[in-house]
């Protein structure tokens, strides 16, 4: 017999249509149930599992989204080669949570529909520079066209609480990422310069270094010396994500860097 909606289940309900997902969540909220969403691009690892575990402590129900979002790719990254194995992801959920894992897996093909059969990917290709990979995933807002998002901040006033969690790392400090599988052994060794330089910058800030530019320069230099190419390195306010010049409040150091053909991201909070 099929279990009632909203009840814990060993195998999650799989929803692929956003209208169905919206209906399910509204039905659950109408029953006064709270919902945690763990957004992922799939190819699950222990970092994702830790988020699901934490989600259980904050709500009645847990939804895991598996959606390879084109907007999260740099122009030179090939969207089509991002690692993906949906059935293996379901197996990982079953193995990690023999009982209740997640209540719903939301697995849409494309969240963005611009009419006339166009998805976000094709719409982006119409109005944006698609870059060397030809994936057309950059926001079109800057071009004054209708293909991109135009509202980003708390103006939307959604009744949503964003709950952060510590980054799960390998034993040597490398942040877990689905992209790590593409690193060669040598590239992986060099990529440790990201977490090591961030840790040194964090320690320097906590010991009184206040110049954000000097802290950024130290991290950038370390990554370059290791053979990486820095995409961005910024120190921002933890709450607003606005770039700051001085270490005088809780901050987060955000970095993206290339090693070979792999773009890695990492961040580290600094509490002063």
UniProtKB/TrEMBL annotation:
Keyword Nucleotide-binding: yes
Entry annotated with the keyword Transcription regulation: no
GO biological process: pantothenate biosynthetic process
Superkingdom of origin organism: Eukaryota
Catalyzed chemical reaction(s): (R)-pantoate + beta-alanine + ATP = (R)-pantothenate + AMP + diphosphate + H(+)
Top-rank EC class of the record's enzyme: ligase
Pfam families assigned to the protein according to its UniProt record, in alphabetical order: Pantoate_ligase (PF02569)
A cellular component annotation (GO) from this entry: cytosol
Assigned EC number: 6.3.2.1
Example GO molecular function: ATP binding
Pathway(s) served: Cofactor biosynthesis; (R)-pantothenate biosynthesis; (R)-pantothenate from (R)-pantoate and beta-alanine: step 1/1
SUPFAM superfamilies per the UniProt record, alphabetical: Nucleotidylyl transferase
Key words, A-Z: ATP-binding, Ligase, Nucleotide-binding, Pantothenate biosynthesis
Similarity comment: family membership: Belongs to the pantothenate synthetase family.
UniProt name for this protein: Pantoate--beta-alanine ligase
Lineage: Eukaryota, Viridiplantae, Streptophyta, Embryophyta, Tracheophyta
């Amino acid at each position: 017999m099929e279990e009632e909606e909203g009840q814990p289940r060993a195998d999650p309900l799989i929803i692929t249509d956003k209208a169905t997902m919206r209906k399910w969540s509204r039905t659950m909220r109408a029953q006064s149930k709270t919902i945690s969403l763990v957004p992922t691009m799939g190819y699950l690892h222990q970092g994702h599992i830790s988020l699901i575990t934490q989600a259980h402590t904050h709500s009645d129900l847990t939804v895991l989204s598996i959606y390879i979002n084109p907007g999260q790719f740099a122009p030179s990254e090939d969207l089509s080669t991002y690692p993906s194995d949906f059935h293996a992801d379901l197996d990982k959920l079953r193995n990690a949570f023999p009982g209740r894992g997640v209540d719903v897996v939301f697995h849409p093909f494309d969240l963005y529909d611009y009419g006339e059969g166009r998805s976000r990917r094709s719409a982006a290709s119409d109005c944006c520079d698609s870059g060397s990979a030809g994936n057309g995933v950059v926001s079109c807002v800057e071009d004054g066209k209708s293909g991109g998002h135009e509202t980003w901040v708390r103006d939307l006033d959604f009744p949503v609480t964003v709950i952060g969690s510590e980054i799960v790392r390998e034993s040597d400090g490398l942040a877990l990422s689905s992209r790590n599988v593409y690193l060669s052994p040598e590239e992986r060794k060099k990529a440790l310069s990201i977490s090591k330089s961030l840790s040194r910058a964090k320690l320097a800030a906590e010991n009184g270094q206040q110049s954000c530019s000097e802290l950024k320069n130290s991290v950038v230099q370390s990554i370059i010396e290791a053979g990486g190419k820095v995409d961005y390195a910024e120190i921002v306010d933890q709450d607003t994500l606005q770039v700051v010049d001085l270490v005088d409040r809780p901050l987060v150091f955000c970095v993206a860097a290339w090693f070979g053909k792999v773009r890695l991201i990492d961040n580290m909070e600094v509490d002063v």
